[in-house]
Design brief:
- By secondary structure, this protein is mainly β.
- It is 5% helix and 30% strand.
- It has helices at residues 106-111, 339-342, 363-372; strands at residues 6-7, 26-29, 48-51, 91-95, 116-120, 124-127, 132-133, 138-141, 147-151, 154-156, 160-165, 168-172, 180-182, 187-192, 195-199, 204-206, 211-216, 219-221, 227-229, 242-246, 249-251, 259-260, 264-268, 271-273, 280-282, 287-291, 294-296, 304-306, 321-325, 328-330.
- The longest helix is centred in the C-terminal third of the chain and has 10 residues, at 363-372.
- The protein is globular and about 55 Å long.
- The chain starts with 5 loop residues before the first strand and ends in a 16-residue tail after the last helix.
Length: 388
Amino acid sequence: MSRFCCFRSRHSQPSPMDSGKNHNKKENIGHFTNPTPIPSSFIDGHFTVQQGPSCGGSMALPYAHVDGSLRALAAQAEGFGRMAIGGLHGSLYCVTSLLDDGPGSLRDACRRKEPLWIVFEVSGTIKLNAGIKVSSYKTIDGRGQRVKLAGKGLQLRACEHVIVCNLEFEGGRGPDVDAIQIKPNSRHIWIDRCSLRDYDDGLIDITRASTDITVSRCHFFGHDKTMLIGADPTHIDDRCIHVTIHHCFFDGTRQRHPRVRFGKVHLYNNYTRNWGIYAVCASVESQVFSQCNIYEGGQKKMAFKYLEEKATDREYAMCGGIRSEGDLFLNAAQSGLMIENVEKCAFKPQEFYPKWTMEPATESLKDVIKVCTGWQAVARPQDTGCVA
C-alpha cells in the first residue's frame, strides 16, 4: 500500500462533506492596537497580534490559515503543545463506519501502530462501549464531517504526538470516564476545536506526568468537573506538567477551568462565565499564569480559588500561585487573587516558547469566542500528499 493511500471500508460509502470557508491570516509582531490599558510587561514582542479575516468577522484567530490544506494543521499549535505533529508523516485513513469497532472504524485506526492522519467520510454518533486507546503519531481530524463520540471517550496513554481536532464529545458514562483522558507519560498533544459536555467524570484530564499539551478553541458546557491538571498530592511526578489553554469557552460549567496541581499552566484569551464554584483553582505547588482572559460571574462571583494540599515529599501543606495580567472581570466578578501567592507563580511563558497569539480581553473578544469555539462546520481540506 502506498504511503498516502486512503484506508477504506468496503461496507460504507462516503457522505458529502459540510461546506465551509477557509480563512487566511496575516501576522504582525508588536503592540496591541486596542485602547484597553495593557500592562507594560505585555508589550515585549513575545506575542503575536493577528489581523485580517476571522471567524465572526472581527478578529483573526490563531492558525486560521491552516484549513487550506489537510496536513498544514501539524505543528501549528501555540504554547506548550506546539511540537505536536500527529500523523504528519503517515498515510491517510478514512473512517467510513460509525460502528464501535471493525474495518473502517475510528477504533481500528487508533490502535494501529504506524503514523496515520485520520479523517471521516461519515457524519453521526459513534457509541463507544469502551474507551478508545490512541497510539502515538495520530491525527484525528474531524473537519468536513460532524462526528460525535458518546458512551466513553479517548484515552491517550503513554503516547506522543497526537492531534485531536473538530470532534464532539457527549454523554460519557461510567466511573473514571473522561471525554479525553491524557495519562500517563504522554506528551506533545494538541486538542483543538472540540465540543465537550456531560461526562460522568471529567471532560479533559491531564495527569500522571503528561506534559507539553495545548488545548485551544474548545467549548465546554453542561458539565461539573471540567478540566483536571495534576492527579493528586501523591503524584509528585506531575511537577513536570506544562499545559497551555487558550481561546476556549467555559460555558456555565461548574468548576475546574482548570484545577491545577503541581504543573505550570498558561491561560490566555479564554472566556469563562457563570461558574458554579470557582473558575480557576491553584492547588499544591501549581503555577497558573492567567493572561487576558474574561471571567463573567453568575451566581458565584469569585473567580480564583486556592486549596492547600500536602505533597507526599513535603513537610507542610501548601496551595499554588496564580498571576493575573490583563484579565477582564464582568458582572461583578472578583478575582479573589491572593497577592501573597502571586510570587509562587514564578514561570514566564516566554521562557518556554517565543510567541503566542493574543488579544486584549474585551467584549468583542467574548463575542468571537462564543461563535468560534467547539466543533466548526469547515470543509475537509485537500490532502496534497506532500509531507515535510
